[in-house]
Amino acid sequence: MEAILYDSLKDKKVICNLCNHRCIIKNSERGICNVRENRDGILISLVYGRLIAQHVDPIEKKPIFHFMPGSLSFSIATVGCNFKCLFCQNADIAQMPSDRDGMIAGEYCSPASVVERAKKTGCKSISYTYTEPTVNFEFILETARLAHTEGISNILVTNGYMTAQALKIIGQYIDAANIDLKAFNTKFYKRYCGANLEHVKNTLKLMKSAGIFVEVTTLLIPGLNDDMDEISNLASFIAESLGTETPWHVSRFHPTYRLTDRPSTPLTTLVKARKTGMAAGLRYVYTGNVPGENGENTFCYNCGKVLIERWGFNMKKNLIEKGLCPACGAKIDGVWAE
Predict the structure, then answer these.
(1) Which domains does the chain have, with CATH numbers?
(2) pLDDT of 153 over the 70 cut
(3) How far out from the chain centre does Cα 254 lie?
(4) Among 208, 218, 210, 183, which Cα is nearest to 333's?
(5) 217 pLDDT exceeds 80?
(6) What does the pLDDT read at residue 338?
(7) What angle, 0 to 180 degrees and rounded to 10, lies between the N-to-C axes of helices 267-279 and 228-237?
(8) Mean pLDDT of 134-155
(9) Taking phi first (over 0 means left), then psi (-120 to 50 degrees means alpha), and beta for anything else, what does residue 337 get?
(10) Opening angle at CA 307, ends 275 and 323, nearest 5
(11) What is the pLDDT of residue 205?
């Protein structure tokens, strides 16, 4: 399928305007994501509708904690990613085209079939997740439009590298997003992700201003992005630029892909990061990849009462009533199912 958001250049070259890499792609070559190919001056999406993953997940797995908690989300992905994270948690599919000579795998599905499967499985939302959804932009756009007509919400789980142009087109159909803010220093982004931090910060602000419900996730990697001063600066950015009501997930790293020389994140680091986030003014800070810890629960920021109790991706109890704390009446930020 012909891609959108590209311009023609001389000598059959094109510039892709979908993400902030803005790849200039020669004829017969692909962009950084390895799933968009220039064929005689026409940019083609190689992954339109070719789904490598389709699962029914609890929405908490995204992780999304403040948007219809306890509901199910039909989760889909294609291969490919516009980042090259050395610590990629889903490298087998996200980096498949890059690591396996351009290989594109996946079962063809139509937008209508995805929406129908979401309805049949009782899902309240469709999540574009597992790999970077931006690279499957055309399919997601059509699916998200159709989902809205059926009363189904749309969720992006993304690295936040799409251009403002792309966000303007799709933003009206996106209800919630979890954006990876992988670190708060430019060197980390360049060396370990092959990207630029400033573009991610700008996308976060744009998503918030577009009315999308935003949650943020940071995977803490020992010795690389777990300095408490940096974490404090990151938390302050969220509080000041997105609002203190923005949920922040600090997650545990496990050695994987091309970053196996680092140990798993100590629990003490996650606890310190959570306290640092709260000290920066954030109302809701969660620890991830550590089931059974107190940091999975939602507390009232005003009186401290436990409002949502979780174990891993499962919600065990939800005491929020009409968006309010039953103990003190404080408004709890989020989108709550009636």
Answers:
(1) 6-45 (no CATH), 50-290 (3.20.20.70), 297-338 (no CATH)
(2) yes
(3) 19
(4) 208
(5) yes
(6) 59
(7) 40
(8) 98
(9) beta
(10) 110
(11) 98
Beta bridge partners of residue 306, listed in sequence order = 299
Give the closest residue to 329 by CA, choosing from 319, 314, 316: 319
Other Cβ atoms within 10 Å of 90 Cβ, number: 20
User: Hey, CA dihedral for 140, 141, 143, 149, is it positive or negative?
Assistant: positive
pLDDT tens by residue, 68-108 = 999 999 999 999 999 999 999 999 999 999 999 999 999 99
**Interatomic CA distance for residues 290 and 254, integer angstroms:** 11
Token couple for 204? 């976060």
- Contact at 8 Å (CB) between 193 and 221? no
Dig out the tokens for 221 from the structure. Answer: 């990697």
3-state SS record for 154-189: EEEEECCCECHHHHHHHHHHCCEEEEECCCCCHHHH
Beta-ladder partners of 44:
2, 37
> What's the CA gap between 50 and 164, in Å, rounded?
25
Judge whether residue 267 has pLDDT over 70: yes
- Which residue do the tokens 């404090």 mark? 232
Cα–Cα distance measured from residue 68 to residue 290, given in angstroms and rounded to the nearest whole number:
22
Asked if residues 328 and 317 have their Cβ atoms less than 8 Å apart, the reply is no
